[in-house]
Amino acid sequence: MFGKIKGLGKAYSEYQKTKKAEKAARAKLPPETGGPPRDPEIIKLNKQLKAAKQVGAGVAGTIAGASVVGKIKQKRKEKKRAGKNNG
Questions:
Q1: Entry pTM
Q2: 85 and 62 assigned to the same domain
Q3: Do 66 and 73 form a contact (C-beta atoms < 8 A)?
Q4: Co-location of 47 and 84 in the same domain
């Protein structure tokens, strides 16, 4: 059992080394091919774009949720009215 745990530790340390090497290699790439942006204005624009996307997703979710809730309320009212007419 301890041999298996020892093997896992070695595998994990090797995984960490490869991950570090990949990160270092990616940092050397130019921004056009997936490297980090170097211009502070680009960094600022990327943050603004990310925030705008999140706001857009939130608005779409809110609209969809509101329409579902509205339909549910409408069906409940219709059921209530149908019950009153029969009684």
A1: 0.36
A2: yes
A3: no
A4: yes
